Fold this protein.
Amino acid sequence: LAGVIEGLPTNLKESIADERAVASVLFPVLRGEEEPPQGVKRLGAIRALRKLLGFLAEQRPILLCIEDLHWASWDTASLLMDLFSETAQIRCFMIGTWRTDSARSDEHFLTRDMELSLVEVRRLPIRGFSTDEAREFLIKRAPDAALEELRSILRVGRANPRVLSELLWELEHDRLADVKLDRACDDFLPKLFTERMKDLEKPHEAMLKLLAVASGPIEHDWLCRAVKAELSGSVLPGEETQDAIEAAFAHNEECRLVRRGEDTRHRTQWLLAHDVIRDALVATLSEREQARLAGRIADSVGDERADKYDLKFEYELRALRVAKAFKAAVRAAREAE
């Protein structure tokens, strides 16, 4: 949303400067040139955000996408309900994903809130492929593959789109023959990714381990610094360390182990491609190793970004560096004030 507002023409940005300043009290990322006013309450900030959405909806329809709503805190849930509690027409359509197998899904307060909402709420169950759909998917993605290979993929994938996609990747890279296709679908992905991560070079492995202990996406520059620190005792013959790190980014992305994204300021970020990869990596790390890697991330964040003191606090705390965590917490509190 902040990126959309920044992209507006100057005259339009100036016309919503007051609402943007008020909303930034609750959502600091929306802050523009205007300083947030004093004494703004939560509902006032939400009302300003609703006005911003209404203004943008006059320019073009808005689509809001929110993933993993089953993990929403009470604050997030109440924010969503406050935002859409009025029946005034806003050309806004929201899509939220929700895992019904989550332990928190049935009794989640957001479930009750949605039932009482004044706006129309529809629940659409998303299932896997049928056998025919899976077969059609494979034929379209790999029209030149041998029929026996597609049958093997279909037998293991059991119409699971993610498993089918990963097996097709193995096929496209001539690695399907090395994959044991006699495993059940439930435990196939962990073993497949574990096999894909075998015999990685040190920069590739360091990058994955750092992302495994990360609580969210890590900016490219931070991750480079953390990997470089992790490799400080290693010798990389024939290659400069930075070149080796960039090669690790490319290789891990090519192997579908990591994926890149962008923050609101279009800075490149990295995260693991699947939670299965995280689980497999964390299982190999002791608590001491996880704390050490969290410390690497904390050091890479540095002190130059005031908007990241809270993140630095989190990683310092996880690294068991209490004094540094306390210092970062104080800075984060001052910045919040």
